[in-house]
Amino acid sequence: MKPVRLLRFSASALLFVALLASPGLARGQATPSLDARLEPPEIAVGQEARLVVTITGVQSAPVPQIPAVDGLGIRHLGQTMSMQFVNGAMSSEVIHNFSVRPERTGQLTIPAVRMHVAGQSLSSAPIHLSVYQPGRVPPAPRATAPRGKSGPEPAPAAPAAPDEAQVALLEISGLPARELFIGEVVPIELRLFVREGTQVTQASPPELVGDGFTLSRPANQEPKQTIVRRGGVRYTEVSFPAALSPITTGDIPLLASIEITARVPKRLPRQRGRFGDPFFDSFFDSFSYHAVEEKIPIRSDRKSLHVAALPENGRPASFSGGIGRFTISASAEPHDVFVGDPVTFTAAISGEGNFDRLEWVPLDGSASWKTYDASARFEKKDDLGIRGVKTFEQAVMPLRADLEGIPARELSYFDPKARRYVTLRTEPIGLQISATPGGLRHAGVPAGAASAGSGVDVDGYEIAPNKIDLGRIRSGFGPVALQPWFLALQALPLFGLAATLWWTRRRRLLAGDEAHVRDRAAQRELRVQLGRMDEAIRARDVGAFFDAARRAIQERVAAQSGGVASSLTRPEIEQRLTDRPEAQAAVRAIFEAADAIAYGGQADAAGQLGEWKRKVESVLAEIASRRQR
Question: Which pTM was predicted?
Answer without folding.
Answer: 0.47
